[in-house]
Structures
1.
Amino acid sequence: MEITLNWYLSLSAVLFVIGVLGVLMRRNAIVILMSVELMLNAVNLTLVALSQAMGDVAGQILVFFVMAVAAAEAAIGLAIIIALFRKKVTVDVNEFHLFKY
Amino acid sequence: MVAQLLFFLLAIVAIAAALGMLIARNPVNSALWLVLNLFCIAGLYLTLNAQFIGIIQILVYAGAIMVLFLFVIMLLNLAELPRREDIDWKRGAAFILGMGVLAQLVYIVAMSFDVLPHPPAAQEAVATGSAQVLARALFTEYALPFEVIGLLLLVATIGAVMLAKRRFV
């Protein structure tokens, strides 16, 4: 059995859905950020697989930019979590409703 | 034969590590499971003959981003969140929504079975994934986006310092 592009795309879909479930089901804000990283990785896997299958470097260039955005997002997200933790002394997202009233 | 075996091994470990991240109650364990997952994805990049991206994946994700996560988890001295006593119906809804997304993605992949291009010979794939070809594209055709992404990282750094300052919120 040959490993075709579909196997990589299927694996990427499964990883993406695990990331979606992490964002929707977990209460810990840091784990939610990690799930977002997992989703970005799943998309990166799709980009690299398609780029290699088509012999086009554009997909891999895009992966670079996604990685840079992921690093920026992690830095900002963790800074926000630190700021929220100072205020509430918890990272449970159910405890945060600053925009509610 | 070796390639198939390697792919399935890496894929199974990657999915298991992602599920471990989802299920682990302690955030440090979650982070370590995610590191294992990132290493498996780097291995998958190598099976695709994208060596440069594979190395960058380990350096940037496992080396920089996950260290930042672990640093923050340990800085805040986070333990497990207390268990909820009441039944959480939101989790069931979240699971159903996630399965809906999975069904859609699998449908798309299944529909594209005959449309997708066949993988090229290993020689070509190695050439496409090499640092030389990537750098040529990055510094000529994509020079402007490259500079903009540098600016984005600068802004993110300043923003992170501002947000983490005492008495900002």
Note: Chain A has a mean pLDDT of 89.
2.
Amino acid sequence: MTSSPLIPEISLNPLPQSDGSCQYTCPTSRTTILTSVNGPLEVRPKDELPNHATIEVIVKPGIGVAGVRETRLSSLIHSTLQSLILTNHHPRTLIQIVAQIVQAEDHTSLPLLLTPLLNCTILSLLIAGIPMRTVGWSVHLAVLQNNSRGNFKTAEGQVFKLEEKTGGNGDKMDTEENEKAVAVVVRNPNSEILGLAKSSHTLTFSKEGEMLLIESLECSQGSGGESADGQGWDITDFLKLAEEGKRICCEEGVEIVRDALGDRKVF
Amino acid sequence: MSMSLDSPEIILPGDPLPQLSPLLSPPSTETSTSTTDTKPRSLRLGPGLTLSPTTPSTPILPYRYGTLNLTSHTKRPTASILSTPRHYHPSTNDPVLVTLLRTTAEQFIVQLAPYTPPAIIPFENYIINNAGTTASARKSRPNLPIGATIYARVAVVHKHLESVELSVPDPTFGEVISQKNTSSSSSSNQKNKKESSTSISAGTTTGASSIANRAEVTPYILSTSQPMTKLLLAEETLGKPLLSAVASKVPFEMIVGKNGRVWIDATTQKEVIQVVRCFKEFDEAEAWNDEDGGLAKGRQIVGKVCGK
């Protein structure tokens, strides 16, 4: 599975008792998530919806007890999945999703955890046979200052510049020949690269290219605190970035899902 | 879409299905070529497919991952998505093995699968004897102990109904009792002996002689995964490697419920356990996923459990 440096390690149905489960390891940050999906189950009367299934997302932290951060993550996942799952197929039932953070570089960082959580959850939903409208995939992109001279290590194809449309194999060292300040984008960064970043964007797209989730934040370290107005990124940069994110999700992401599920025998 | 050619292509939820377009016969009077206003006239949609007006090429949306199963040569073409989720989704006419939870004034409350809402068997759906009279009359109402295993058929499934309705339509269904145990406790009014629907035997048939003179044997109810259940139900095709391997060592009887429960009976308790272990190990090893359909793994397990 580790043939390409950008293909996540996916293990399907590691939990024998759940309806669908998946373990997902991000190829670059090594964040490992284990999710389990059960459903449709009997729903608690107070959560029962007359025409829809109730979706419950529980995020279990890798360290300590669940708090506001986990609630935030689960609400983000919940709102993303709400538009993917056909809840009207199983009214008055419960679809329960439990995500356990197994390993993470930084257990406190929302953006580092969100993309693996979403991708892992979507794979386990597919395996569990939960009715879904379409398939989504999530990617985390970090925008770096052009002049950030951190000598971080990246995998091949992980870095691209916003100017070149093709993206792909742009190396970070090439930026010095470019006079214009060109933002460098690293996909699925690890915590070290995220620490140097100017802004971080978690984007989720459906297979058809609909935007399902944008979770952007400005990182003070990279920008040196220069933009106090909360606009740590340029809108034109963001649009280019979103375009690239869409390409990654719709082409590479869906390919990864297809390859992972294609190994399984169906009869 | 770089699938290998030997395996059928995996369909993901939301994939367009242009191969279904020719089956959607357009209205006879119009000759419009736009696919948006063609309605599926004769195509039957099986599990995994639903109608959706927004899908690009055809108004049919796959909502599960799997492979497309299309029978177009018959009079009424059908299409469905073949997949084996672990969760059992009841559909009409499925044979199931259920456990009796409690009895109310009009129905049995039974359990199909753990953590799911209970299913019901109304008494009027419970045919008790060979004469085919219904058990709706109070005095002829079946009296089953709580915890009894009933082999039933799914009668009504509707997502908006309170629960799945089952029926016991004829004497091949009913409470599942070991043939031996029935004769010992014949005083009870449980006359609906279940003739096992699937009986596998090695060499000689499992005649009355082998069952009559055996010692007290408690049958076993094994929970299996959905792929394993499908394999056991398809005894002539998918399940043949495993079933014939087991049957060549141990004669046994089994009843397979599509809800992932298998009732196993044999002449001795040891043989029951052996069969159960064979199935269980095969299931836990996920041997159905093997290239050869579990042939090698099945032989290996049978050799280990039942001896050479």
Note: Residues 196 and 221 of chain A are 6 Å apart (CA to CA).
